[in-house]
Amino acid sequence: MPSKSKVAREEQSIYWKNKLDQRLFVLSEKGIEPKKIAVDTAVRKIRAKLRDTEGRLRVISSMEKKVEEMAEIKAQKLAAPKNTKSGKKKGEENAPEMSKGRQKKKKKKKD
What is the pTM of this model? Predict the structure, then answer.
């Protein structure tokens, strides 16, 4: 049962539920007590397979949900306008005319 397909796992779940119902019906027809039915090895094995299949179905559905959420986030990012950088640009008036090092050299030459 190493299938990762949701459809295959759902079919397996139905299969194991039917097997469990059949086994419980056979044991109840024989007149076995409910306590003994609960500890029957075949019933326990079928229930374990059913739990395993249901658990894998939950994982598959959570993975599908996560993929949908990621696609939604990606679509939102693509639709959002791009932000421009707010840093200094060439030719801005706030930029000093000369670097401090050049200003010091120029000052020394004047002295």
Answer: 0.62
